[in-house]
Design brief:
Layout: E1 15-17, E2 24-27, E3 31-39, E4 43-50, E5 53-58, E6 62-76, E7 81-85, E8 89-92, E9 97-113
Antiparallel strand pairs: 1-3, 2-5, 3-4, 4-9, 5-9, 6-7, 6-8, 6-9
């Protein structure tokens, strides 16, 4: 079916990355991203994974996340830190500033709207 897309990281090769040096707080986190779909207007869906470490994040985009595995702590500047793990779903809205700390390698499904 041309209008049905399975979200499966085995379908594409991952892109490899890491936090920008000026955003790194601790550790040596590495990213793998399987961007599985793109739609007009800046909408993306796929799977993202990060190894342990901590870095600063700033969101200009809207993102829905569903944690598949691992444990992370997402902390908003001036707000509370939230521990997220397998089964948790949440939205990060534009304007969010804080840190993402991976305690155990974390894998999530995402949908991003720019």
């Amino acid at each position: 079916m041309a209008n049905f897309l399975e979200i499966d990281a085995e379908l594409v090769d991952p892109e490899h990355g890491a936090p920008a040096e000026d955003r790194l707080v601790s550790g040596d986190p590495k990213f793998r991203t399987w961007n599985l779909d793109e739609a007009p207007g800046g909408i993306y869906a796929g799977v993202w994974e990060a190894t342990p470490g901590k870095w600063r994040i700033e969101y200009d985009e809207w993102e829905f996340c569903h944690i598949l595995a691992g444990v992370s702590v997402v902390a908003e500047d001036g707000g509370e830190a939230r521990t997220v793990s397998a089964g948790d779903s949440f939205v990060i809205k534009p304007g969010f500033k804080g840190t993402w700390e991976v305690l155990e390698t974390t894998r999530k499904e995402y949908v991003i709207r720019l």
